[in-house]
Amino acid sequence: MSLAFDLALCALILGAAGLAVAGRNLFGSVVFYIVYGVLIALAWVSLGAADVALAEAAIGAGVTGVLLIGAWQGMKDAGGLEAEITKSLPVRVLAGLGAAALGALIGFAVLSLPGHDGLTGPVAENQPALDLGNPVTAVLLSFRAYDTLLETLVLTAALAAVWSLTPARFWGGIPGPKHTTRPDGVMASFGRLLPPLGVLVAVYLVWAGADQPGGAFQAGTVLAAVWILIVLAGLRDEPRLSSLILRLIVIAGPLVFLGAGLAGALAGLALGYPEGHARTLILIIEYALTLSIAATLALLIAGPARRAP
Amino acid sequence: MNAMEWFIAGLLALGVFFYVAGTVGLLRFPDTHSRLHALTKADNLGLGFIAIAAGLHWGDGWIAGKLALVWLLTLFAAGMAAQLVARAALKAEGGE
């Protein structure tokens, strides 16, 4: 029964991926990309990787989907969609060959991984030193903290890139259009009903993340969704991008992370934690990262400033 | 299969029936508003039956409670999305 489910899921994933790539209609491709993200999240659940499933559903399908729809709308407004020219045959063949070569490389890399247990053993051996129950958090914030630090910096750099598109006269202004909804309408009511629940879920995710599935990225995405919902419902406007508090929140996570890494370097091992304090430090980093990731994702979706401060 | 398992299977079949009905409606109904009607009403009823079946299958109060919460939130989200899509469709048709 489970095998039947997995096979059906694989077929659906391949189908959604094929339709996303081969679709003639750009909006249809975006929709199938989002469907693909949701199906991939189900596949991770089926593999027992709840952490990855949460991240994939929240970021892969959710945030990326919204960004892609925003990009599509922007292209439509700019008249860029009318010219959906089919590229010439050599270009398409070259693109196909490139994609096939990349796919083959990834397949080769996966197949050449030693054993099928991967790093489960070494992680389980060293995990007690950190006093964390969740092996994923142990890998992300200690054994491979370097990767996670760079990931958070990538998010910040992406936000800087988006902000750099601001026209000079709007610099430091308010992103996005002003949303107005009828005060007693469905959207406004929903915007008041859901945020408390969303905040509760986010706090739970980051709090549980130390010992169970969850963590900064998942909680941050939920908080970002709450932020976006409140703005869409017209209950609060986006903040001024020149706001010092806002900018401090955006860099708080990477800053705390870098600070911990630097302190470790002075004590002998970069990004290493002093014995007995690993759990405390990791939790502080996770909480700071949650706020920064939430603000960065919400601001990425809001885009560059479009109104004067 | 004992009586309980038959009952759960029946609930699942009922849920799937409503999903199929909703999908047929989505594909066959003539305009946006009717399609929304099929999608948000029939599908959510189907989800409700499947949630009840899953809750009975695990026979655990906590799991059943969480499933009920999931269903409730889906109802809220589907209802809101349907309202927004319907309003956007009305505007596109030149109404309002």
Automatic annotation (TrEMBL), chain A:
<dbReference type="Pfam" id="PF04039">
    <property type="entry name" value="MnhB"/>
</dbReference>
<feature type="domain" description="MrpA C-terminal/MbhD">
    <location>
        <begin position="11"/>
        <end position="73"/>
    </location>
</feature>
<keyword id="KW-0812">Transmembrane</keyword>
<dbReference type="Pfam" id="PF13244">
    <property type="entry name" value="MbhD"/>
</dbReference>
<keyword id="KW-1133">Transmembrane helix</keyword>
<keyword id="KW-0472">Membrane</keyword>
<protein>
    <submittedName>
        <fullName>Na /H antiporter MnhB subunit-like protein</fullName>
    </submittedName>
</protein>
<comment type="similarity">
    <text>Belongs to the CPA3 antiporters (TC 2.A.63) subunit B family.</text>
</comment>
<dbReference type="InterPro" id="IPR007182">
    <property type="entry name" value="MnhB"/>
</dbReference>
<feature type="domain" description="Na+/H+ antiporter MnhB subunit-related protein">
    <location>
        <begin position="188"/>
        <end position="288"/>
    </location>
</feature>
<dbReference type="GO" id="GO:0005886">
    <property type="term" value="C:plasma membrane"/>
</dbReference>
<dbReference type="InterPro" id="IPR025383">
    <property type="entry name" value="MrpA_C/MbhD"/>
</dbReference>
<dbReference type="InterPro" id="IPR050622">
    <property type="entry name" value="CPA3_antiporter_subunitB"/>
</dbReference>
<keyword id="KW-1003">Cell membrane</keyword>
From TrEMBL, chain B:
<protein>
    <submittedName>
        <fullName>Na /H antiporter subunit</fullName>
    </submittedName>
</protein>
<dbReference type="InterPro" id="IPR005133">
    <property type="entry name" value="PhaG_MnhG_YufB"/>
</dbReference>
<dbReference type="GO" id="GO:0015385">
    <property type="term" value="F:sodium:proton antiporter activity"/>
</dbReference>
<dbReference type="Pfam" id="PF03334">
    <property type="entry name" value="PhaG_MnhG_YufB"/>
</dbReference>
